[in-house]
Amino acid sequence: MKIFAPLYEKVMCWSKHKNAPFYLYLTAFVESIFWPIPVDIMLAPMALAKRHLAWRFALGATIFSVLGGAAGYYLGSALYDPVVLPFIETMGYQGKMVTAQSWFIEWGIMVIFIASFTPIPFKVFTITAGVMGMVFWPFILTAFIGRGLRFFLVAGLMVLGGEKMETKLSRYIDALGWMTIIAAAILYFTLKH
Question: What is the value of pTM for the model shown?
């Protein structure tokens, strides 16, 4: 069943739109606070569609993601009880917050680097950093390094892959899409129990 190929074609068209950078940077900002969709989903096709601007897109995504991280930190430190806690309870994220807090205790600032570079939900850790009173500037610097490495890696892969990457992606996009959904479902049910 080919549902991802038409979506991929639409995303590639949207990535060439004049307002695409604005939406990329907005997504990068809100993804660090509450948005569930990773920035890479917009960054990769934009870097592929406009390879001459890929590094600018990666830098902008990094800056706005870290600014969003600072906002998440503020929410955790100053507005946890009135804003964050009701949201966590509504979404059923209590377990994720407990896990994040235990990771902070065990690994300290390295958990920010891990969360900023890997697919682990960064937003949980930006808010938890504020809740736990992590020192702000080391938090920002570590987030900047991790996010920058991730977004520049994505942009770099698109630039280096070029048209060959675009051809391969368009050929295998449906298989990749279904594998991602299956992996997410397995991860969800594994973590749920």
Answer: 0.80
For 41, other C-beta atoms within 10 Å of its C-beta total 13
Rounded Cα distance between 24 and 46, Å, is 9
Look at the chain and report how many structural domains it folds into. Answer: 1
Sign for the CA dihedral angle at 121, 76, 142, 147 comes to positive
pLDDT single digits (tens) 46-63: 998 889 999 999 999 999
Helix, strand, coil in percent for the chain, rounding step 5? 85, 0, 15
Range of the domain at 115: 4-192
Contact call for residues 58 and 43 (beta carbons, < 8 A): yes
Closest CA to 124 of 67, 188, 72: 72
Evaluate whether 96 touches 124 at the Cβ level (below 8 Å).
Answer: yes
